[in-house]
Amino acid sequence: MMTMEEGKKKIVFVHPDLGIGGAERLVVDAAVGLQSAGHKVTIFTSHCDPAHCFEEVRDGGRFSILFAILRQLALVSSTAVSSNELKRLDPDVFFVDQLSACIPLLRQLCPKAKVLFYGHFPDRLLAQEGSGKTKLLKRLYRQPFDNIESWSTGCADSLVVNSKFTRSIFRNAFPSMRARELKVIYPCVDTESSRPNSAKTRLWPEKKVLLSINRYEGKKNLSLALEAYAGLSSEERQKAKLVIAGGFDPRVHENAKTLGSLQATADSLKLSHSTFKGNAEELNSGNDDVVFLLSVPDELKRTLLQNADILIYTPQNEHFGIVPIEAMLAGIPVLATNTGGPLETIYDGRTGWLRSPDKVQQWTDVMRKPLIPSSADSLKAMGRRGRERVFAEFSHTKMTKSMNDEIQRLCQSTAARPKIVPRWFFILLVCITTLVVGITFALVRIKVWPHA
Questions:
Q1: pLDDT digits over 325-338, tens only?
Q2: Topology at the third CATH level for domain 4-188+397-445
Q3: How much is the pLDDT for 57?
Q4: Which of 404-431 are b and which e, b meaning 16 or more Cβ less than 10 Å from the residue's Cβ?
Q5: Angle between the 360-368 and 223-230 helix axes, to the nearest 10 degrees?
Q6: Which domain of life is it from (predicted)?
Q7: Which residues pair with 395 in a beta bridge?
Q8: Radius of gyration of the chain (CA)
Q9: Domains 4-188+397-445 and 208-394 agree in fold
Q10: Which helix or strand (DSSP H or E) is residue 252 part of?
Q11: Residue 260: other Cβ atoms inside 10 A
Q12: Cβ atoms of 278 and 297 closer than 8 Å
């Protein structure tokens, strides 16, 4: 029987320099949770200018994957060689997420330490390929890095992912992993400081609030919310306001382009609209059908959730989707696409609705429910069940227990570890990377590579 002291492990997190987002939230939650369970936790991460916190989506910039990998390898190497920090820490487990390139190096530097890799989504599938000549060049450029991702991910002792949907994607992206166990550990939300939807003062006292929260990106399919809202009659729209809120950086072309497209769509649907940048004091002015909110701070986000009657979640094939969980925690029913992560988080008809993104009328029908007085009790019951589900399956306590169980299992395992290639492969890897970089820079100099 394992004693309490024997159960305590030294865990080192290695997280890439990719700004603030859902992945970072999970890492912090996991680190804090494991520390509270008695483990000694250290986090190694690169540093970057906070102004670049939106660039994790990889929708612009040359050589982003190359430099991300090099930063991670430099972080591990400098820690091990310059400060000898890894030897001093003597870790039992490395927790690596997002970029897997450092895993073989970690195993070389600390042969006794086990490696757990948490996969949010395969990096190769996050890359934007473009079309025509750009697509071909990017495929040639990314091929060695895709191979590195496949090989290095397979070197981890334990593979954990954020949803069953992501697990299926990993197995399709990496055929070598189909025979391996990929454990699902869901991200969590803070249930300790939560309150159900009980706002005394509504931002729009005479309106039912249909709320969407997502980054302003084309892949979030936000136009679906506009089209479904436009399906309401003019009388119904007088009773409801569609609020589209989310992350927005004017320097990111994708954000500005998406906002402009949504505004144009609203105009074509004859929906009046206004745009604000995270200012709650001005929101209740005007009587527009649609409000676009940009760069919403946490405080305003909480206020919006307190005021919402239903949450509209339009992305297709979302890896997990933390926003529906936040809404259910606030006691709000969720309308989401019947794809990706929401299939695992929302019970259709009990905690929300799952509808096809191609059936706009079905979305309109759900948006109509808060406007029907006889639906009030059933919507409250749905919100209550959603909140109960979050406490049962997506709490910090639940995630910490799952992480701790996996750490203990990994440390006690005597199974054969995944093989890593001989040292000569590292030399070959450096040569290939150098060749790719040289070719890419040459293409840039002769203006074959398009501008970012």
A1: 999 999 999 999 99
A2: Rossmann fold (3.40.50)
A3: 29
A4: bebbbebbeeeeeebebeeeeeeeebee
A5: 70
A6: Eukaryota
A7: 189
A8: 24
A9: yes
A10: none
A11: 11
A12: yes
Is residue 182 a contact partner of residue 171, using CB atoms and an 8 Å limit? Answer: yes
pTM: 0.80
- Extract the tokens encoding 138: 């990017």
Count of H-run helices and E-run strands, the chain: 18, 13
How many other CB atoms sit within 10 Å of the CB of residue 136? 12
Q: Could you tell me if 324 and 352 are in contact, meaning their C-beta atoms sit under 8 angstroms apart?
A: yes
DSSP state at residue 175: G
The b-or-e profile of 182-195 (16+ CB within 10 A means b, else e) is: beebbbbbebeebe
Question: Taking a C-beta distance cutoff of 8 angstroms, is the pair 216, 248 a contact?
Answer: yes
Residue 124 has which token pair?
């190769």
Q: How far apart are CA 369 and CA 362, in angstroms?
A: 11
Superfamily of domain 208-394: Glycogen Phosphorylase B; (3.40.50.2000)
pLDDT digits (tens, 9 = 90+) for 15-34: 875 455 677 788 889 999 99
Residue whose pair of structure tokens reads 């199974």 in the numeric block = 415
**Are 115 and 155 a contacting pair, CB within 8 Å?**
yes
Backbone angles phi, psi at 75, to 5 degrees: -60, -50
Scanning the structure block, which residue is given the tokens 């994957």?
65
- Whole-number Å distance between alpha carbons of 42 and 14: 9
Beta partners for 161? 119, 184
**Number of residues assigned to the chain:** 452
Report the greatest alpha carbon distance in the chain.
72
Hey, where are the domains in the chain?
4-188+397-445, 208-394
Q: Residue 351 has which token pair?
A: 């905690």
**Between 209 and 28, the higher pLDDT residue:** 209
184, 167 Cβ separation under 8 angstroms = yes
Asked whether residue 451 carries a pLDDT value surpassing 80, the answer given is: no
The answer to whether 103 and 152 have CB atoms below 8 angstroms apart is yes
Contact criterion met (CB below 8 Å) for 100 and 418: no
Q: Facing residues of 335 across strands?
A: 312, 353
Q: Residue 384 CA to chain centroid, in angstroms?
A: 25
What separation in angstroms does the CA of 198 have from each of 189, 201, 330, 419?
19, 9, 9, 55
Per DSSP, which regions of 8-97 are E strands?
Answer: 10-15, 40-45, 93-97
